[in-house]
Amino acid sequence: MIQLRRSADRGHAEHGWLEARHSFSFSEYYDRRWMGYSNLRVINEDRVAPGTGFATHGHRDMEIITYPLSGTVRHQDSTGGSGLIRHGELQVMHAGSGIRHSEMNGSYSEPLHLLQIWIEPNEVGVKPGYEQSALDAETLSQGFVRAVAPANETGAEAAPFHIHADAGLSLAWPKAGSAIEQPLRTGRRHYLHLARGEVRLGEQTLSSGDAALIEGESVLALVAETDSELLLFDLP
């Protein structure tokens, strides 16, 4: 079964310095039908004005992934983690027993466009931490690549990031005209988010911001109509 979640049906917030689209209930956007999907709790698509951003604030017991689409994120946190994150890099933060951080637009002239993702952990009170790593564009153009895996998963060492949650994230950047057939793990739910581009999924076409909730399927088959970027979550 595949259920589509169209970009235009997401929550929308406009704060002047920030325009946000919420895939699930968040802040002032509330829809009890869309509180999350399994332990995937937040996918916010944020557009942040130059010289602004999310000032220092706190989190605990959440796995937080930052995926820049364009522009530069300037990160700082209470563990001493800091850095500039651009498109082609991924950031994972383990809030654990408590962390304070800021995510600011690192430019005073260019806007920032990013995805902020929250996944509920299966371990609480862990030591907070921060990781950042570059992605391999060439490999991602060939199909889905496991980028984030549960820390206790067999074979998880193949993924560059590990989280304290029963969830994984694979990424793909197919070129226009590319076909992908991705096996799906039996007994799991999957959530496909199209960060940008256009893909054909069966008889349906997905555009930037669209998503597919997938259950009971063994293979995900799609064709990229344009150069695209896809995130595929593997969930309990």
From TrEMBL:
It comes from the Bacteria. Binds 1 Fe cation per subunit. Keywords: Iron, Metal-binding. Gene3D superfamilies: Jelly Rolls. GO terms for molecular function: metal ion binding. CDD domains: cupin_Yhhw_N. It holds the Pfam family Pirin. The keyword Oxidoreductase does not apply. Fe cation binds at residues 57, 59, 101, 103. Its cofactor is Fe cation. This is Pirin family protein. It comes from Stagnimonas aquatica.
